[in-house]
Amino acid sequence: MSSASSQETILLLGGTGKISSRIARLLSSANYSVLQASRSGVAEPLPHCQGVKFDWFDPTTYENPFASSPISAVFLVSPMILDPFGPMKTFVDLAREKGVNRFVLLSASVIEVGDGPAQSTISKYISEIGVEYAILRPTWFMENFSEQQHLPTIRDASQIITATGEGKVPFISADDIAAIAVHSLTDKTPHNTDHLIFGPELFTFDEVTALLTKKLKRQITHVKISQEQFEGMISQFGIPDDYAKMLAGLDTFIKEGREERSSDAVKKVTGREPKTLETYLDECVARGVWDGK
Protein backbone atom coordinates (compact mmCIF):
# COMPACT_ATOMS: atom_id res chain seq x y z
CA MET A 1 0.00 0.00 0.00
CA SER A 2 1.35 3.39 -0.98
CA SER A 3 0.94 6.57 1.01
CA ALA A 4 -1.63 9.11 -0.06
CA SER A 5 -2.56 12.70 0.40
CA SER A 6 -4.82 13.30 3.38
CA GLN A 7 -7.24 14.93 0.91
CA GLU A 8 -8.20 11.48 -0.40
CA THR A 9 -11.12 10.24 1.71
CA ILE A 10 -12.16 6.62 2.20
CA LEU A 11 -15.49 5.85 3.85
CA LEU A 12 -15.69 2.92 6.27
CA LEU A 13 -19.15 1.69 7.20
CA GLY A 14 -19.31 -0.18 10.48
CA GLY A 15 -16.57 2.28 11.26
CA THR A 16 -15.86 1.26 14.85
CA GLY A 17 -16.31 -2.47 14.26
CA LYS A 18 -13.77 -5.28 14.31
CA ILE A 19 -12.57 -4.92 10.70
CA SER A 20 -13.24 -1.25 9.95
CA SER A 21 -11.38 -0.05 13.05
CA ARG A 22 -8.32 -2.01 11.94
CA ILE A 23 -8.62 -0.64 8.41
CA ALA A 24 -8.80 2.88 9.85
CA ARG A 25 -5.53 2.43 11.70
CA LEU A 26 -3.75 1.16 8.58
CA LEU A 27 -5.12 3.93 6.36
CA SER A 28 -4.33 6.62 8.91
CA SER A 29 -0.72 5.48 9.12
CA ALA A 30 -0.49 5.80 5.33
CA ASN A 31 -1.91 9.37 5.44
CA TYR A 32 -5.30 8.58 3.94
CA SER A 33 -8.24 10.65 5.09
CA VAL A 34 -10.70 8.28 6.76
CA LEU A 35 -14.39 8.77 7.48
CA GLN A 36 -15.69 6.23 9.99
CA ALA A 37 -19.45 5.84 9.75
CA SER A 38 -21.37 4.42 12.71
CA ARG A 39 -24.51 4.99 14.71
CA SER A 40 -22.48 6.87 17.32
CA GLY A 41 -20.59 9.00 14.81
CA VAL A 42 -17.39 8.46 16.81
CA ALA A 43 -14.00 8.09 15.13
CA GLU A 44 -10.76 6.45 16.20
CA PRO A 45 -8.43 8.96 17.95
CA LEU A 46 -6.04 8.84 15.00
CA PRO A 47 -4.60 11.34 12.54
CA HIS A 48 -6.78 11.93 9.46
CA CYS A 49 -9.80 10.12 10.99
CA GLN A 50 -13.24 11.68 11.38
CA GLY A 51 -16.55 10.21 12.44
CA VAL A 52 -19.99 10.55 10.91
CA LYS A 53 -23.39 9.26 12.00
CA PHE A 54 -24.78 6.49 9.82
CA ASP A 55 -27.53 3.97 10.51
CA TRP A 56 -28.71 1.38 7.98
CA PHE A 57 -32.16 1.53 9.57
CA ASP A 58 -32.40 5.32 9.19
CA PRO A 59 -32.19 6.29 5.50
CA THR A 60 -32.04 9.97 6.44
CA THR A 61 -28.42 9.33 7.52
CA TYR A 62 -27.33 7.97 4.14
CA GLU A 63 -26.43 11.46 2.88
CA ASN A 64 -24.27 12.30 5.91
CA PRO A 65 -20.95 10.84 4.66
CA PHE A 66 -21.11 12.97 1.51
CA ALA A 67 -21.62 16.31 3.23
CA SER A 68 -17.96 17.37 3.15
CA SER A 69 -15.04 16.02 1.12
CA PRO A 70 -15.44 13.71 -1.90
CA ILE A 71 -15.32 9.98 -1.21
CA SER A 72 -12.94 7.91 -3.34
CA ALA A 73 -13.91 4.44 -2.06
CA VAL A 74 -16.38 2.80 0.33
CA PHE A 75 -15.95 -0.21 2.61
CA LEU A 76 -19.38 -1.81 2.99
CA VAL A 77 -20.48 -3.71 6.10
CA SER A 78 -24.06 -4.95 5.88
CA PRO A 79 -26.80 -4.49 8.48
CA MET A 80 -27.58 -7.52 10.67
CA ILE A 81 -30.66 -8.63 8.76
CA LEU A 82 -31.27 -11.71 6.62
CA ASP A 83 -31.84 -9.75 3.41
CA PRO A 84 -29.84 -6.49 3.38
CA PHE A 85 -30.13 -5.96 -0.37
CA GLY A 86 -32.75 -3.19 -0.26
CA PRO A 87 -30.97 -0.70 2.01
CA MET A 88 -27.54 -1.58 0.65
CA LYS A 89 -28.59 -1.07 -2.98
CA THR A 90 -30.14 2.27 -2.05
CA PHE A 91 -26.89 3.41 -0.45
CA VAL A 92 -24.63 2.07 -3.22
CA ASP A 93 -26.75 3.86 -5.82
CA LEU A 94 -26.57 7.08 -3.82
CA ALA A 95 -22.79 6.75 -3.45
CA ARG A 96 -22.44 6.29 -7.21
CA GLU A 97 -24.48 9.46 -7.76
CA LYS A 98 -22.01 11.21 -5.45
CA GLY A 99 -19.09 10.06 -7.59
CA VAL A 100 -17.90 6.92 -5.80
CA ASN A 101 -16.58 4.30 -8.19
CA ARG A 102 -14.93 1.76 -5.86
CA PHE A 103 -16.69 -0.48 -3.37
CA VAL A 104 -15.25 -3.19 -1.11
CA LEU A 105 -17.83 -5.43 0.55
CA LEU A 106 -17.26 -7.52 3.66
CA SER A 107 -19.09 -10.81 3.11
CA ALA A 108 -18.27 -14.35 4.29
CA SER A 109 -16.64 -17.47 2.90
CA VAL A 110 -19.84 -19.53 2.98
CA ILE A 111 -21.87 -16.85 1.18
CA GLU A 112 -21.54 -17.23 -2.57
CA VAL A 113 -21.80 -14.28 -4.95
CA GLY A 114 -25.23 -14.66 -6.54
CA ASP A 115 -28.89 -14.95 -5.65
CA GLY A 116 -29.22 -15.95 -2.00
CA PRO A 117 -29.39 -14.77 1.61
CA ALA A 118 -27.31 -12.20 3.48
CA GLN A 119 -24.67 -10.54 1.28
CA SER A 120 -25.11 -12.83 -1.75
CA THR A 121 -27.37 -10.58 -3.82
CA ILE A 122 -25.63 -7.29 -3.06
CA SER A 123 -22.31 -8.98 -3.94
CA LYS A 124 -23.73 -9.87 -7.33
CA TYR A 125 -25.13 -6.37 -7.81
CA ILE A 126 -21.83 -4.65 -7.05
CA SER A 127 -19.94 -6.98 -9.38
CA GLU A 128 -22.30 -6.26 -12.29
CA ILE A 129 -22.87 -2.48 -12.26
CA GLY A 130 -19.57 -1.42 -13.81
CA VAL A 131 -17.77 -0.12 -10.72
CA GLU A 132 -14.38 -1.09 -9.31
CA TYR A 133 -14.97 -3.62 -6.56
CA ALA A 134 -13.78 -6.41 -4.31
CA ILE A 135 -15.85 -8.89 -2.32
CA LEU A 136 -14.06 -10.07 0.83
CA ARG A 137 -15.16 -13.55 1.90
CA PRO A 138 -13.27 -14.46 5.09
CA THR A 139 -13.83 -17.56 7.16
CA TRP A 140 -14.35 -17.47 10.93
CA PHE A 141 -12.31 -14.82 12.76
CA MET A 142 -9.67 -15.75 15.32
CA GLU A 143 -10.92 -12.72 17.25
CA ASN A 144 -14.20 -14.50 17.99
CA PHE A 145 -12.23 -16.13 20.80
CA SER A 146 -10.99 -12.85 22.27
CA GLU A 147 -13.47 -10.12 21.32
CA GLN A 148 -16.84 -11.75 20.77
CA GLN A 149 -19.01 -14.68 21.76
CA HIS A 150 -16.31 -17.06 23.00
CA LEU A 151 -14.49 -14.53 25.20
CA PRO A 152 -16.76 -14.74 28.27
CA THR A 153 -17.22 -18.51 28.09
CA ILE A 154 -13.47 -19.13 27.88
CA ARG A 155 -12.69 -16.59 30.61
CA ASP A 156 -15.50 -17.37 33.04
CA ALA A 157 -16.49 -21.00 32.36
CA SER A 158 -13.42 -22.49 30.62
CA GLN A 159 -15.66 -23.51 27.73
CA ILE A 160 -16.27 -22.94 24.03
CA ILE A 161 -19.83 -23.80 22.99
CA THR A 162 -20.57 -24.60 19.33
CA ALA A 163 -22.69 -26.75 17.03
CA THR A 164 -19.68 -27.46 14.79
CA GLY A 165 -19.04 -31.04 15.93
CA GLU A 166 -15.72 -32.27 14.52
CA GLY A 167 -15.71 -29.83 11.59
CA LYS A 168 -12.53 -27.94 10.80
CA VAL A 169 -12.01 -24.21 10.21
CA PRO A 170 -9.04 -22.31 8.67
CA PHE A 171 -9.36 -19.46 11.22
CA ILE A 172 -8.23 -16.06 9.94
CA SER A 173 -7.00 -13.00 11.81
CA ALA A 174 -8.99 -9.78 11.51
CA ASP A 175 -5.64 -8.05 10.96
CA ASP A 176 -5.13 -10.07 7.78
CA ILE A 177 -8.66 -9.31 6.57
CA ALA A 178 -8.08 -5.60 7.19
CA ALA A 179 -4.79 -5.73 5.27
CA ILE A 180 -6.54 -7.21 2.23
CA ALA A 181 -9.31 -4.62 2.58
CA VAL A 182 -6.79 -1.77 2.53
CA HIS A 183 -5.21 -3.07 -0.65
CA SER A 184 -8.67 -3.53 -2.19
CA LEU A 185 -9.56 0.07 -1.32
CA THR A 186 -6.30 1.71 -2.38
CA ASP A 187 -4.43 -0.34 -5.00
CA LYS A 188 -4.14 1.56 -8.26
CA THR A 189 -5.43 -1.43 -10.21
CA PRO A 190 -8.88 -2.51 -8.98
CA HIS A 191 -9.16 -6.13 -7.87
CA ASN A 192 -12.61 -6.71 -9.42
CA THR A 193 -12.94 -10.14 -7.84
CA ASP A 194 -14.08 -11.94 -4.72
CA HIS A 195 -11.32 -12.91 -2.29
CA LEU A 196 -11.77 -16.13 -0.33
CA ILE A 197 -9.73 -15.43 2.81
CA PHE A 198 -8.51 -18.33 4.93
CA GLY A 199 -5.85 -18.84 7.56
CA PRO A 200 -2.90 -21.18 7.04
CA GLU A 201 -4.13 -24.18 9.11
CA LEU A 202 -7.28 -26.19 9.75
CA PHE A 203 -8.50 -26.71 13.32
CA THR A 204 -11.47 -28.39 14.95
CA PHE A 205 -12.81 -26.63 18.02
CA ASP A 206 -11.55 -29.58 20.06
CA GLU A 207 -8.06 -28.77 18.78
CA VAL A 208 -8.55 -25.08 19.60
CA THR A 209 -9.53 -25.89 23.18
CA ALA A 210 -6.53 -28.23 23.46
CA LEU A 211 -4.27 -25.34 22.42
CA LEU A 212 -5.98 -23.02 24.88
CA THR A 213 -5.61 -25.60 27.65
CA LYS A 214 -1.87 -25.72 26.96
CA LYS A 215 -1.47 -21.95 26.77
CA LEU A 216 -3.65 -21.05 29.76
CA LYS A 217 -2.54 -23.99 31.91
CA ARG A 218 -6.14 -24.82 32.81
CA GLN A 219 -8.63 -27.17 31.17
CA ILE A 220 -10.71 -25.56 28.39
CA THR A 221 -13.54 -27.74 27.06
CA HIS A 222 -15.42 -27.74 23.76
CA VAL A 223 -19.12 -28.18 24.56
CA LYS A 224 -20.93 -29.64 21.55
CA ILE A 225 -24.60 -28.71 21.17
CA SER A 226 -27.19 -29.01 18.38
CA GLN A 227 -27.95 -26.34 15.80
CA GLU A 228 -31.32 -25.75 17.47
CA GLN A 229 -29.72 -25.31 20.89
CA PHE A 230 -27.16 -22.92 19.44
CA GLU A 231 -29.90 -20.91 17.73
CA GLY A 232 -31.76 -20.56 21.03
CA MET A 233 -28.58 -19.53 22.82
CA ILE A 234 -27.69 -16.68 20.44
CA SER A 235 -31.31 -15.51 20.23
CA GLN A 236 -30.99 -14.53 23.90
CA PHE A 237 -28.65 -11.71 22.86
CA GLY A 238 -31.37 -9.85 20.96
CA ILE A 239 -30.48 -11.18 17.51
CA PRO A 240 -33.59 -11.44 15.27
CA ASP A 241 -34.90 -15.01 15.03
CA ASP A 242 -34.37 -15.41 11.29
CA TYR A 243 -30.82 -14.07 11.53
CA ALA A 244 -30.08 -16.30 14.53
CA LYS A 245 -31.31 -19.28 12.53
CA MET A 246 -28.94 -18.40 9.69
CA LEU A 247 -25.98 -17.95 12.06
CA ALA A 248 -26.67 -21.29 13.74
CA GLY A 249 -26.84 -22.89 10.32
CA LEU A 250 -23.29 -21.69 9.64
CA ASP A 251 -22.07 -23.90 12.49
CA THR A 252 -23.69 -26.82 10.70
CA PHE A 253 -21.79 -25.88 7.52
CA ILE A 254 -18.59 -26.33 9.53
CA LYS A 255 -19.85 -29.62 10.95
CA GLU A 256 -20.47 -30.85 7.40
CA GLY A 257 -16.89 -30.04 6.39
CA ARG A 258 -17.70 -27.08 4.14
CA GLU A 259 -14.89 -24.93 5.57
CA GLU A 260 -12.16 -27.55 5.17
CA ARG A 261 -10.37 -25.62 2.43
CA SER A 262 -7.52 -23.22 1.86
CA SER A 263 -6.51 -20.18 -0.18
CA ASP A 264 -3.47 -17.98 -0.77
CA ALA A 265 -5.36 -14.68 -0.73
CA VAL A 266 -3.40 -13.11 2.15
CA LYS A 267 -0.04 -13.91 0.58
CA LYS A 268 -1.19 -13.00 -2.93
CA VAL A 269 -2.66 -9.62 -1.99
CA THR A 270 -0.40 -8.46 0.86
CA GLY A 271 2.87 -10.23 0.05
CA ARG A 272 3.13 -11.85 3.49
CA GLU A 273 1.94 -15.04 5.14
CA PRO A 274 -1.24 -14.95 7.27
CA LYS A 275 -1.03 -15.06 11.05
CA THR A 276 -1.18 -18.53 12.59
CA LEU A 277 -3.71 -19.42 15.27
CA GLU A 278 -0.94 -20.28 17.74
CA THR A 279 0.67 -16.85 17.24
CA TYR A 280 -2.68 -15.20 17.81
CA LEU A 281 -3.33 -17.21 21.00
CA ASP A 282 0.13 -16.35 22.31
CA GLU A 283 -0.58 -12.65 21.76
CA CYS A 284 -3.87 -12.93 23.63
CA VAL A 285 -2.31 -14.79 26.55
CA ALA A 286 0.41 -12.14 26.80
CA ARG A 287 -2.32 -9.46 27.07
CA GLY A 288 -4.23 -11.43 29.72
CA VAL A 289 -7.38 -11.61 27.59
CA TRP A 290 -8.80 -14.66 29.39
CA ASP A 291 -7.35 -14.05 32.86
CA GLY A 292 -10.65 -13.20 34.52
CA LYS A 293 -12.95 -10.25 35.10
TrEMBL record:
Any Pfam family: NmrA
SUPFAM superfamilies (alphabetical): NAD(P)-binding Rossmann-fold domains (SSF51735)
Taxonomic superkingdom: Eukaryota
Oxidoreductase found in the keyword field: yes
GO biological process: indole alkaloid biosynthetic process
Domain NmrA-like residues, every copy: 7-281
Keywords: Alkaloid metabolism, Oxidoreductase
Key word Oxidoreductase present: yes
Matching InterPro entries: Ergot_Alk_Oxidoreductase, Ergot_alkaloid_biosynthesis, NAD(P)-bd_dom_sf, NmrA-like
Pathway: Alkaloid biosynthesis; ergot alkaloid biosynthesis
Gene Ontology terms for molecular function: oxidoreductase activity
Similarity-based family: Belongs to the fgaFS/easG family.
Protein name in the entry: NAD(P)-binding Rossmann-fold containing protein
